[in-house]
Write a structure and sequence with these properties.
Largest sheet: none
Structural class: mainly alpha
Number of helices: 5
Helix content: over 70%
Number of domains: 1
Length: about 140
């Protein structure tokens, strides 16, 4: 029963992942604008300083959704698919670390976008597996 609740929450997380995928390039553009604004003025932009309210909302909602995903992944460590969630968490940390070191916007945008798509499909696969397939994913790694 708790597993069903967890994966129903996962459906919500999956929908949020779709939102992040759709709005990723918009978020990347706004993030670049905000970083440039901060370099020029030395201040973080306020709500009225953003090009539009929608841009501000996208800029704020993207990281919040990423945090929600991360919390769901952490909770997934106590599920039967803990190894998939551990892989997602470790991969997320590794990508974040590497992308900060690379600091090339085109590569950062491409890799982050692809990783968001991969996260979506892994979330979808774990949800489908829980409700329908009931496959032990650990067999694939043996």
């Amino acid at each position: 029963m708790i597993g069903h609740i967890f994966y129903f929450i996962g459906i919500f997380v999956m929908i949020l992942s779709i939102y992040n995928i759709i709005n990723y390039f918009k978020y990347a553009r706004i993030k670049k604008w905000a970083n440039t604004f901060k370099k020029v003025t030395g201040k973080t932009p306020n709500i009225p300083q953003y090009p539009s309210k929608e841009d501000h909302d996208t800029f704020i909602s993207y990281p919040i959704i990423s945090y929600i995903q991360t919390i769901w992944f952490l909770l997934g460590l106590v599920s039967n698919s803990w190894y998939l969630f551990l892989t997602l968490i470790l991969t997320n940390v590794l990508f974040s670390f590497l992308l900060r070191k690379i600091n090339i916007h085109f590569i950062e945008n491409f890799v982050s976008y692809i990783f968001n798509i991969i996260k979506f499909f892994l979330i979808l696969a774990t949800i489908i597996n829980h409700f329908h397939i009931h496959y032990d994913w650990l067999i694939l790694f043996r």
